Amino acid sequence: MSSRSNTFDLNLMDYDGIRLSLASPETILSWSRGEVTRADTINYRTQRPEKDGLFCERIFGPVKDFECSCGKYKKAKYRGTVCERCGVEVAPASVRRERMGHIDLAVPVAHVFYYKIPPSKIGLLLDLSINQLEAVLNYEAYIVLESADSPYRKGEVLLEEEYQEAKQKYEGFHAEMGGQPIYDLLKEIDLENLSSDLRIRLEKETLQSRQVQLLKKLKLVEAFRLSGNRPEWMILTRIPVIPPDLRPLVALEGGRYATSDLNDLYKRVITRNNRVKSITSGIKTPEVIIRNEKRMLQDSVDALLDNSRRTRPIKGRGNRPLKSLADALKGKQGRFRRNLLGKRVDYSGRSVIVVDPTLKLYQCGIPKEMALELFKPMIVRKLEERGIVDSERSARRLVRARSTEVYEILDEIIRDHPVLLNRAPTLHRVSIQAFLPVLREGRAITIHPSVCVPYNADFDGDTMSVHVPLSPEALMESFLLMLSIHNIRSPANGRALVSPTQDIVIGLHYLTKVRPVPNKKPRLMCSVDEINMALLEKTLTFHEPIRYKFNDKILETTPGRVLFNELLPPELRFKNIEANKKRLAEIVDECLNKLGTEKTIELLDNFKQVGFEIATTSGLTIGIDDMITLKTKENIWNRSTKEVLEINKAHQSGLISETERYNKVIDTWTRAAMQIEEDLIKELKKDRHGFNPLYMMVDSGARGSRNQACQICGLRGLMSKPQRKVTAVQIIETPIKSSCKEGLSVLEYFISTHGARKGLADTALKTADAGYLTRRLVDVAQNVTITMADCGTIMGQEIGALKEGEKIVEPLSERIAGRVALVDIIDPVSNEVLVKGGEEISNEAAIKIEKSGLEKVKVRSILTCEAPVGLCAKCYGRNLATGRMVEIGEAVGIIAAQSIGEPGTQLTLRTFHGGGVALRIAESTSRTAEFSGTVS
What we know:
- The chain is an alpha+beta fold.
- The protein is built from 34 helices and 29 strands.
- The strands form eleven sheets. It has a six-stranded mixed β-barrel.
- The longest helix has 36 residues, at 746-781.
- The chain is globular, with a radius of gyration of 38 Å.
- 32% of the residues are buried.
- InterPro entries: DNA-dir_RpoC_beta_prime, DNA-dir_RpoC_beta_prime_bact, RNA_pol_asu, RNA_pol_N, RNA_pol_Rpb1_1, RNA_pol_Rpb1_3, RNA_pol_Rpb1_3_sf, RNA_pol_Rpb1_4.
- Belongs to the RNA polymerase beta' chain family.
- This is DNA-directed RNA polymerase subunit.
């Protein structure tokens, strides 16, 4: 043992990279300090590891620092000495985390990764299917090793009867079952010859499916050839035993032990391996028993390597599948993602969020109790610095007592110490932002209402976690990059992420609505003070038409709109509009582009203040009377019922097919539902001169949609019914005539339950898929970063407006703004240079280019970028999150991946189909004939 004791003394911290490859039996032996031959762990009487067992001190090193098993050598001065009595090398106990053992298998066993995971690597090399390979390995079928004069080729799989027949008929015929024949066949493969043979066959092959198969095989052969690995290493003749401290045995109270699952799995392998050795070398045992034991050995090695891949995983106590080597590494809870990439943090908190309209956009409210805990080390340090306490212990006592000095110091600390707020699921960059904390009573975290959009948060019980950045670098980054006021633009599309929602929208919408006053001439108002005075004296309302003098012009507007314009920066006035969610977002966008972040934050705070105030004073509520009933509904319903009857008759007469009948019926009901929805919205608009609360909420975009309003007052319409296939959705032919106000009949209620259940199931199941998509996208794109300012390429792409037929989906100006022009862009009429080659196309220039009549423009593109690694800034263009040219080092690949993944996950989370309502738009298409049809 001592001669090989220093072969494996690696410095585990000194490495350049990690390479995963097949391990040969020799390599496994070079790692090992000795063979584990017994399945015992520790002696329960002496509490010492059993010799040659899974915790053997001779193989893995001493349990106690610098002390051999028998106690002959103690102390560090004997380091490296091997005790002649017990065979244990004197070393620190930490070697038990590094030293490995091995198990020599009685028969070769296939590695589960290479035969079971499709495409099976062993199967590909030997031209066998997974089922055939499994049959051979499970001792259910034979594989031919010597064909002699038989019609069977070498490597062909035979059943028991075929084998017995061939064995009797042909002399020299030889076939076997299990891992050994597979090992022999793989060992015989000459990779060089096989590679050239496959290339020749590929050239001659004409059938595409065979070509694909040959290409796969060639790729695998080349991988083996170039890596220096041998195919027979996919069959295990020796398996490594990982260090005992990585699969510990922990003593519990009452003399019991808690053990790692790996120990149980290793025990099974050792026990079965020893049994196979004894029955094959000792007394003659029936072949059927030997086969069964060998199959069980293959089974136990499979379970050790990857238990979850088995049809019936081996289970431990409480019917729980045991965690194998692969399970410990893979997935979210595996070693890589949980322990190496995931970090545990001190000083973080988590609580429910509530809204706080008094906060500024860059602030968040932290409960005092939480803040004391989060900033405890800093408070303790300050208390000691100021001489208020003389030891850390008394400082902590003072913090626990919540004394006034502690709160004074806390106030001082948080003044310029931002905290990070994160809301799970963290789908994109703005799901974690920095805020300056403000102390609050109570136990909830409070946030500004406008930051709900990037977080996709609401106040129905959502929770957020708080983290404290500690290092000076982290604090700088929080201030300069992560503070919420620096994250106003979306990294995905450059539009404002933070815009008014819900109450703010309804308040501003109410403020800017017009209510005509019959037989009353609009008054002339000259100033805001005059309007405020009239409103105070109640001689004027917000909605009354007035004439207002603005910049020497007389505008026809309302007092509400004048007050609304007072919220806007002077450069953006005068917006004589009825405010709704879309228009407010446009105003915020315009402010951001023209006046920058500071003015935009001011504008958002103005909107918030006035929006909440007006929404409260307006007293908007929904009552049952606001849900009006539609008089035309019955006629539309009866007309559609007749149409459906005629369609069904036509089907019975054989005039139309079942598919046509179904589609026509669905289209008829869809048109009817759309007609009812249209009529209902018109009726709601007329009700109370457009001041019907339900209509105002839908019209302003504050809450709900036209379709939901129709379900409340009109009819619920067609319902979707999930099919057995995940993607297929069938629409139930019978629509629900009742609205939610009228109430559903029993049958209607049961029809509607399909969709409601589907919505809940989808939210649970599809979110994981959407999240996984984002992860795969990030995995692909994560190393794409901006590595240089300009790659100097002369290549680029022509970009035009995005069209669907003749309809423009995305205009030219939107597509080219922020890109870099490849060559000079010249006005076709005036020959004026609009943008020079190599310059960024600004928003104004993009609009000019569009107006000049140019159909297409040549710009730099990442598809033609010639940067050796990553991309260059010129080919990428503008960073949408900042509105400026992208900087070197920006992780544009991850931004791109999150920009695709985040909306995908959000779409899944929005419960599908609005409670199961089938949304289908009956499209009408018209085509103009090429000829008029008249004969000249």
